[in-house]
From TrEMBL:
SUPFAM superfamilies associated with the record: Nudix (SSF55811)
Molecular function terms, GO-annotated: metal ion binding; pyrophosphatase activity
PANTHER family: DIPHOSPHOINOSITOL POLYPHOSPHATE PHOSPHOHYDROLASE (PTHR12629), DIPHOSPHOINOSITOL-POLYPHOSPHATE DIPHOSPHATASE (PTHR12629:SF0)
Protein's recorded name: Nudix hydrolase domain-containing protein
């Protein structure tokens, strides 16, 4: 397999109405019971450290001209957090102001992030930003404590509501819809 490399630069990134368009996700996995069935009450979320300050973030980055927003979200999860998975729900668009990234197309640093729930299927041992990023699997309450920005808190609230709705609707069905196996498979590159 060829070496994975993170994209850099802003010359291919999308901008609209003075905002830099960003794509990201909340990577998650569902624990299994001792009998191998999924325990929808035990969900873990993956957060990564910030390279420009303190705290933990969800993977996100610039949406580029040659990809869909879904492709951009999955690429960012791979580059920054070293995970692959399935986008299972669009959480919404969230506006925030970047403290460090202002440019001629976005002088005020405004960003519009399209955020998704990403069910993790693979956790890579090596990934493009592994030298600058550490991964942390957290429970939802712990992740809420780590969300230092309002837009992150809002996207996590959207995830929590969506997940609760999934659990509720699945518990009412005779043949509940179960998400695909969410145990990440360690993969060597």
């Amino acid at each position: 397999m060829s070496e994975l490399v993170a994209r850099t630069g802003r010359h291919l990134q999308r901008y609209k109405d003075g905002c830099r368009l960003v794509a990201g996700c909340i990577p998650f996995k569902i624990s299994k019971n001792s009998d191998g069935t999924l325990d929808n009450d035990v969900v873990e979320l993956l957060m990564i450290n910030s390279t420009s300050g303190r705290g933990l973030l969800f993977p996100k980055g610039g949406w580029e001209n040659d990809e869909t927003v879904e492709e951009a979200a999955k690429r960012e999860a791979l580059e920054e957090a070293g995970v692959r998975g399935n986008l299972v729900h669009f959480l919404g668009d969230y506006i925030f102001k970047s403290k460090t990234l202002q440019d001629e197309f976005c002088p005020d640093g405004l960003c519009k992030a399209a955020m998704f729930a990403l069910l993790v299927t693979e956790e890579l041992e090596s990934w493009p930003e592994q030298n600058t990023r550490q991964r942390s699997w957290l429970t939802v309450p712990k992740a809420k404590e780590c969300c230092q920005y309002p837009w992150m808190q809002e996207s996590l609230e959207g995830f929590s509501k969506w997940h609760a709705d999934q659990v509720l609707s699945n518990s009412k069905e005779e043949n509940p819809l179960i998400l695909p196996d969410s145990t990440p498979t360690p993969v060597q590159n």
